[in-house]
Structures are given as C-alpha cells and as structure tokens.
Amino acid sequence: MRRKAVALVAVALVSLTSGCASLQSSATEVGGVRKTDERSVRDGGTLTVALNSDPDKLDPTLAQTLVGRTVFAGMCEKLYDIDEDGVVVPQLAAALPATSADGRTVTVRLRHDLKFSDGTKLDARAVVTSLLRHRDLPGSARGTELAPVKSVRATGPYTVRMELDHPYVPLTGVLADRAGMVMSPTALKKYGKNFTNHPSCVGPFRFVERVGGDRIVLKKDPNYYDADKVHLDGVIYKPIPDGNVRLANLRSGDLQVGDQMGPIDVRSALTEPKLQLFNSPSLGYQGIGLNVGNVHGLGKKPGKLDTPIARDVRVREAFELAIDRETLNKVVFQGMYEPACGPISPQSAIAPGVKPQDCPGRDVAKAKKLLKEAGVKTPVKIELKTSTTPEQGRVGQVLQAMVKEAGFDLSLRPTEYATMLAETDAGHYDVFTSGWSGRLDPDGNVSNFLRTAGAMNAYGLGDPEIDRLIDEGRAVADPARRTKIYNELTRRVQDAHTMIYLYRQKNYVVATKSVAGIRVYGDGLVRVKTAGYTR
C-alpha cells in the first residue's frame, strides 16, 4: 500500500512558537521536510534516550507498549517500515509483497546476505518461524493481526508465501510493525519463553543487557547489513516517568534525547538554546477503557460483570457526557494536543469523517438523567487506574472533578505502567487510562482492541456487528468503501461507550543540540540508526 498520509511526518520542525530556537544549522530542506546532513555526524559515542516508562517484554510477539517499540526500532527491523512520508517501504524484504488476483496469496521476497545479531543467517525459513510464532504462540499480541494467515511456507531460500483465508488488505501494514519483526530461530530455540531476556534480531544495534526499571543497553551490531550508516557505538534507554526529571537531565547533559515529552516540558525546552525539538502528528489515541466483560483475562470471550458500568450502557454514556475534552486538553496539555472521539487518526491512510468538532460536548444534565433512568445509586463509585507519570495523574484529577458533578465518585489508583498492563489484561479494574501509538492502516487501530476476544481487547467488548465491520474493512481495497466502513464502525464503537477516546497526542521529542540524525515519524518512534554526535 503506497498511499501517502498528508502531513504525516515532520522529521524536525523548527518551532511551535515564534520564540523557538532553530535546529541543527547543518540541516537542509528536502521535499518540505528538514533532514540532517549526514556528513555533519561523527562516528563514536553512546546516546542515552529517556523513555517515559519501562518497556514491557522485549519480545516482538508479546510486547504491547510504545516505549518497547522505540527500543525495538534500534535492534529489531521488520519486513516493511514506513518512511518520512507515511509510505510503506521494504526493510528486510526486497520489495513490496506480491498479491494474487483473488487477494488470498501473498508472496514476500527477502533481501540476501542478512544476519541476526547472533550471527545466524536470515532466510525464508527464519521468517516462517517468526510469523508462525507471532500467529500461534499462546498470549501473542500479534495473533489477531495474523489470524487471516492460513499457512506460511518457504518457496525458495529467500521467498515466503502466505495463504490467506480471505483477502486481507492491512497485511502489509501489519508486517510494518512487530508482526513483521523477524527473530533469530537459533535464539528462539535456545531461550524459548526467555527470549525476552536474550532478544536477537536484525538491526543497527544488538541487545547487551537490561536492568529492570533502570536501563536497556544496546551496542552497534557488526553483523548489520547497513553498518556503515550507523555512527554510534551504542544506545542506552532509561525509563524516567517524570518529564521534569527528563528535562533536567537533558539540560545537564546526562541525557541526549527525551522521548514523549509533555507539553509543559516542551514549552520550557523551547527557551533553551542548547535543546532542539522534534515532533510529528500522531496516528494513535489516548482515552479511558471501561471493563464491561473482561472476566477471564485477555483474549478470552467476554463474561458478565456485576458493576454499574458493565450492566448498563446508560451509565457509561453518562460517564462520557460528564467529560469536557476541550477543557481537559487546555488544563492538562495547554491546548497542545487535539480532542478525539474515535480510534482512527486524521493522519491515517483511510481517515473517517469524525473530526474533533464532531465529538460530543459535555452535558451534565443529560448525564444525571441517564443515571436516574438506569436506576443506579449515586454517587456511582468507580476506580480509575492511571500510570504513575505526573501528566497522567493530572488527567485523573481533572476527570475526577468533572464526573463528580454528574454523580460519579471516581477514585484514583496510580499504578506502575507494566503492573497496570498486567492487571488490566487480567480484568482486574473498573476503568483505566488506555492509549495506542497508532498504525497507518485503520485496522491496526481497531481489530486487536475492539474485536471479540481480540489480542488486546482488555475491555471485554463483544459486539458481532463490530466484528463484522472489522472483517469487511479488512477485505475491501477501495478507499472510498473502506472510509464508509470505518465511519460506521466508529459510530458503533462510540455507541458502546466502552473505550472512550479523549485526545490525540503529538509526538514531542527533545534532544540536545549536540545530536544529529534522529528521525521522528508519525508512528511516534525515535529512530537512531543514523543518529550521532555533531562534529
């Protein structure tokens, strides 16, 4: 799929306000996107990147977090990637996939002479091993994405053929993310379930060590096919949830890159002559997920929960009507994000017609009326789990104050991010702050989360009509028809009030001026392959 998403990418935007200092003086303008002159980057040195939380498993089959994807961007390449224009391009594959006329056979040709970080050769059999693991491993977060793949086999040393049970338009986009990451079959055989502690892929850097809650260390991989473009000796990823601490470490030089910086910290960074800002629009969303049927855990069929929000959709609608998205954006994010009420970003390759101005406004009177009609005792007690970042704490506090006026008693439980994921996956929650970094094809933003028993459907949502629309959107190639399908699907999801979409972030990355060659695209990942220190 070579459809451009308009304004998807800004590799390095010079400013958000008139007072922002410019980026590298060595940058040149190419096609309307600022790019760093690679000749200005010297070899050597280690780059320290601050993440806003500790990644989950470093196993592409099981991983779910954006911060994990950022680490993978340094060590695990995919069959396909997206470029600065939001176009899917070959990465480990030699060309875009060839699809049969009936849409049921997809052939992928691989690049030759590739090696994993452990020295194992990458060939068609290695790709088959990874794809089958992604599809079939119990607990796989990729299972829903690859469910249409009926069989995978090597038809030559560097050719892989997939047979599908129905035409599956999003497949190329799926293979441009973790489902397209190829793992060393030698490492998979040796370490099994412990692969997460010994990951081996093809990438500019190889895994060295992980100290939980403190750092993930990568070193330049001499086996990498494009090693001459890699300037750094290594990269260290450090989880630092507090944006103020990340910014202070950037100022002191202890860090060189701060990922997912919040608006308050971004505004502060704009006045710093030694710092530079990278940003891009987001393909994802942020909101709150409500548990309506997650009784047996992630990936299981929904059950019945005896809670007010699970029993009656009117209670969930009242909860949403008590929220003012515009005020939330202004109070917590200084108006630097965008209100949202659907899963698909306007930056998507297929963007439905749900715009921020179409989102429902706050209506406390109607919310109170719905609670009365539902016959629930007020205040309705609900617990909201949030991550421990100060920003998410502020989101929780604003929501708490808003919904109180409508008849809800919202208590807050800040929870370490990895723990929150485990607990919500298991169904141990009422409501939690839920977000997604987004995918170019809209199916990547809906199927895993909204399909009955989807691989990341932590809400316990089960709606046959939503399932039907997901299947139809996957099988239809015509953009106009797909847009109509996803419009209908979005309205259906809105009516369920199970995932309440609140805002879309912008991908803000702050770096020291001594760093060049960083890439930040619409998927929100910090790409460090060509990064280095200026001469």
Describe the structure.
The two termini are 39 Å apart. The protein is of the alpha+beta class. It is globular and about 65 Å long. Helix 13 (443-450) runs antiparallel to helix 14. The model is unreliable at 1-36 (pLDDT under 50). A hairpin with a 5-residue loop joins strand 5 and strand 6 (88-90). 27% of the residues lie in helices and 23% in strands. Strands 11-12-13-4-14-22-15 form a seven-stranded mixed beta sheet, sandwiched between helices. Strands 17-21-16-20-18-19 form a six-stranded mixed beta sheet. The protein has a four-stranded antiparallel beta sheet with strand order 7-8-10-9, covered by helices on one side. The longest helix has 18 residues, at 479-496.
Helix/strand structural class: alpha+beta
Given the structure, what is the number of helices?
15
Major pleated sheet: 7 strands, mixed
The count of strands amounts to 26
The neighbouring-strand order within the major sheet is 11-12-13-4-14-22-15
Q: Given the C-alpha coordinates, what overall shape results?
A: globular
Radius of gyration: 23 Å
Mean pLDDT: 89
- As a percent range, the share of helical residues equals 25-40%
Report the β-strand fraction as a percent range: 15-25%
Low-confidence parts: 1-36
- First-to-last CA distance: 39 Å
